[in-house]
Amino acid sequence: MSSQPAAGHDAEHESMALVLEHLVSSGPVHETGDQLLPGTAEHTAITPGPVSVQKHSKWWGRFFPGSLESAMDRLFASYHMGNYVAVRGQPGQKIFESMPIYVRVGMHLLFYRSKEQSFLRYKSVEDLLKTVSVRQGKVYDDESNPQAVLEHIQSFIKTYSINLDELQQPDPSQYPNFNAFFYRKLKAGLRPIAEPENASVVSSCADCRLTVFSDVAEATKFWIKGDGFTLNRLVGDTNLADRCFPPGSSIAIFRLAPADYHRFHHPVGPSMCGPTKHIAGEYFTVNPQAVNADFDVFSGNRRDVLVLNWTPKGEAGPSIPVAFVAIGAMLVGSIGWTNANQGSTVQRGDEAGYYAYGGSTNICVFPPEAKIEWDQDLLDNSKQGLETMVRAGDRIGISNA
């Protein structure tokens, strides 16, 4: 199918572009350029479903009363308009990941079915995703109106029940812009590292929704559906992929949602940092709705690739390469690295970097020689196409090398 819209589709395309712009900006950007204004905090694309329904969609309650909320969650999940996440340590317990109704519908139109059948067949819609992502990032970097900044931060805290006691800076008024709060730091010790003396352990790099697979081929069977996904494309270097990550490599996918603590940490150590490669790309969402569809999300999005030379038997042992990938997503303005200088040695749990506004994903790839054994509960959930909620520092596997 042609990537260009037929003449008869021009009106449809223009309408969808307007809907998309509303979906990703929803008030503050559309009306105020690159600045935040007071009174717009409850109209953002990161407002979750329950708040969106209560405040802006009173008609919804007339058709679907509160008692039917769980039934609607199941309906949205069955139509690929939302997703369930497993709660670790509570077998059989799942929660439905909430998002605004208009975002669910918009993502369904954008990402359900193949790219040729979705509105993303229009190149201008892809360009709009990138443009609005950058613009929204500027909005949340804006410091010109402290009142608006504080209002948005307070709304975010209330919406997502952020525990201020966990924060290094618990006073919301001390953050100069929304992004500064978004990639807020936690107090030391709140994310303890599992088995810190065992260099063979692999930890979660973030507070996230996690999937793990013993073989990349399994990941493409159960989770990553984009036909173009390969390790060559993911790391952006055929020689590196062929030399270090042959067939049989293991993979872990760490997806951060908007409410999560948005700093990520080194999953293994001790490790020596290699160079970081910056790869341009799209700004597709990393939500399962896109990952489970025919989109090259991970290998097509803007991303950074850091190679860690890990010594799972301690610094005196042989090193094993690990690809540590940070992937930008829909509405993510930037990826920042804070502790990944080439030639430096890092320990498991050390901060590596952060994401500005939005949700995004880290991926770790381990070669067969690492002999990674993922924790069984994570493997079982992943093979069911189910993510598991974990925290930074939690044990997720071990090397038997």
Number of strands: 16
Q: Total domains, how many?
A: 2
Largest sheet: 10 strands, mixed
Uncertain stretches of 5 or more adjacent residues = 1-9, 23-32, 45-64, 75-80, 101-122, 285-295
Distance between the termini: 48 Å
Helix content: 25-40%
User: What share of residues are in beta strands?
Assistant: 15-25%
Secondary-structure-based class equals alpha+beta
- Helical stretch count? 15
What's the gyration radius in Å? 21 Å
* Spatial strand sequence of the major β-sheet: 2-1-15-4-5-13-9-8-7-11
Form type: globular
The whole-number mean of residue pLDDT values reads 77
Polypeptide structure, described:
It is globular and about 55 Å long. The longest helix is centred in the first third of the chain and has 17 residues, at 123-139. 47% of the residues are buried. It is 32% helix and 20% strand. The protein is built from 15 helices and 16 strands. A hairpin with a 6-residue loop joins strand 1 and strand 2 (94-97). It has 401 residues and is of the alpha+beta class.
